[in-house]
Amino acid sequence: MTEKSRHIKLLSPELRNQIAAGEVVDRPAGALKELVENCLDAAAGHIVVTLENGGQSRICVQDDGCGIPAAELELAVTRHATSKIASMDDLERVSSYGFRGEALPSIASVSRFKITSAVHEADGLGTAHSVEVEHGRLVASGPAALHQGTVVEVRDLFANVPARLKFLKSPSTEFKRAQEWLARLALARTDVGFVLRAGEREVLRFTAGQTLRDRLALLWPALVVNALCPFDAQRHGIRVHGLAAPPHASQLRGDRIFLYVNGRPVADKGLSAAVREAYKGRLTSRDYPQTALFVEIDPREVDVNVHPAKSEVRFRDSSAVFSATLHALQSVAMPSVAVSDGLSADLPAQGAAVNAAPSRPQGFWGSIDNPPLLPRRESAKTQDAYLPSVDAPSFCEAVSETAAAYGLAAAEHRGETLAPRAEGAAPVAPPDETTAPQRGRPQVGSFCYLGQVADTYLVLRDAVGALLLVDQHAAHERVLYERAKQHVFSGKGRRLALPFNLPLHPAEKERLYEIGDRFKSLGFELECADAVLVVLSTPPTLSRAVAGEFLREALAGRKDDLASVFISLSCKGAVKAGQRLTDDEAAELVRQWLASPEKEYCPHGRPCVLRRDATDLEKLFKRRQ
């Protein structure tokens, strides 16, 4: 550090203006954002934007708003001069787009800037005035010709800041960013008309009064827009509404999640997390929901002053906003889609027999010929007699040693149903193969099982004659996951006869104190002794090895709950693609899958079933347009 730099001194006005411009205006799109937001704050009904050379050579924004009086026009290009707030109370409940009073002087400090404005008067005539600024210096001010509104022209952006100029991308890239931002803002203000031109060429036009869907149709593919569903819900005094695509219409693009708070486009991690959470388990990790989501909240409950460009916000009660967003999106993310219309109808009772071939099923259990029957629970309230009890083998061991832990056909082979059996009740006798009636194709409630395609997909016909294809692996995954979740997530642990220890890093010890209650709710009983973690109890279906691995991952901050563990274990234990099933095995798998919640998707988010009715088939065969 030199002697000269040790002394504190005021920065020059030019340097201060350029620093302020760097906070607000980082590229042509940033300048355009500030100018268009000023138009909206001026109650404009129509805005025309023209960009040349991607906005670097020229940006022109014209509106038909209320205009700026001639006496105030020079003040408008002075820092910290604004008409939008006047007191601390106004700052706590900002309802306008701009309010800092920095946009125009910041832009003017790094360009050749001209603003012309006319105030519409009662007699229909307007008094227009113009101000010109070059790189922060006022060079001209006087009368001008304009009927109403304001015209702002920005030329040679960053010409006096070569360091900023060299970071700009190509003109086409800069234009695309400006176009994307203008389109996002246009979705929030459907009452205002917008026109975007590249030189003399018109690129985008939104007419005033369009619906949100109409405007999205100009930006997104028809396949996505046609699938969008409206949602509108209110919780904790917060309204969340908009359009969102159901899970089956997801895309591989994450840039179609548009978030707005009180009409302001924002990038908020909390809202993004709420959107992803609403679709959790219904999308794969590569897919993204498509949505335009609007949050309306009391301005006093949100701070829009946390970022110079006002692109980020901070909520006073972020958990309430998260909950309201999650609640609103559930109607779209968890739809009663077409396949659900028949999936829950006329399901057989848990203990009802399914039409099955009398012979012992072959092929499903692999090399295990006679899987052992797992111990029964003694409680009469047990949901499934074949789930392992606290003394049974762990989930991992059961999956690897025998699929009977969640058997589909073994129970029938032993002459038993899958319903809980009261204590002392005699087992149901196996059917007599010589007298068993032959009923044709197996029936599962109102569904008829037709067969298996590619040893992977189960073919069904529903009550109205529609065709259903069920992915056997995905369906079995859902069955296993739901059973494990029901059994394990109760918070009851299995006391270990021989506790085990895990070494504990100081950072892990701190995290243990933070999330210790969560471990307890999952069924863990833990004791901390110096640098050692003693594990006394674990969730009943986790082996010691898997429980230890989960604790290590959670204490390292890589996992929060057991969901990912059981998703992985369910995947390993499910019947695989390419594995042949007999008719009775397939029918029993379908029955258990139909009885599972959220059956349309596997735990990874992949679809379990596709449904095609007569209309869909006619379109596939070109019988219908």
Q: What is the structure about, briefly put?
A:
Helix content is 31%, strand content 21%. It has 625 residues and is α+β, with helices and mostly antiparallel strands.
Poorly predicted residue ranges: 337-342, 344-438
Query: Got a strand count?
Result: 23
Distance between the termini: 76 Å
Radius of gyration: 33 Å
- The total number of structural domains is 4
Mean pLDDT: 78
Number of discrete helical segments: 20
What shape does the CA trace take?
Answer: globular
CATH architecture designation of the largest domain? 2-Layer Sandwich
Order of strands in the sheet with most strands:
5-4-3-6-2-1-7-8
Walk me through what this model shows.
- It is a single chain.
- This protein is of the alpha+beta class and 625 residues long.
- The chain folds into four domains: 13-206, Histidine kinase-like ATPase, C-terminal domain (Heat Shock Protein 90, 2-Layer Sandwich); 212-335, Ribosomal Protein S5, domain 2 (2-Layer Sandwich); 337-420 and 441-489 and 562-625, MutL, C-terminal domain, dimerisation subdomain (formyl-coa transferase, domain 3, 2-Layer Sandwich); 490-561, Ribosomal Protein S8, Chain: A, domain 1 (2-Layer Sandwich), CATH 3.30.1370.
- 31% of the residues lie in helices and 21% in strands.
- The protein is built from 20 helices and 23 strands.
- The strands form five sheets. The protein has an eight-stranded mixed beta sheet with strand order 5-4-3-6-2-1-7-8, with helices on one face. A five-stranded mixed beta sheet has the order 9-10-13-11-12.
- It is globular, with a radius of gyration of 33 Å.
- The termini are far apart.
- The relative contact order is 0.08.
- Mean pLDDT is 78; it is low at 337-342 and 344-438.
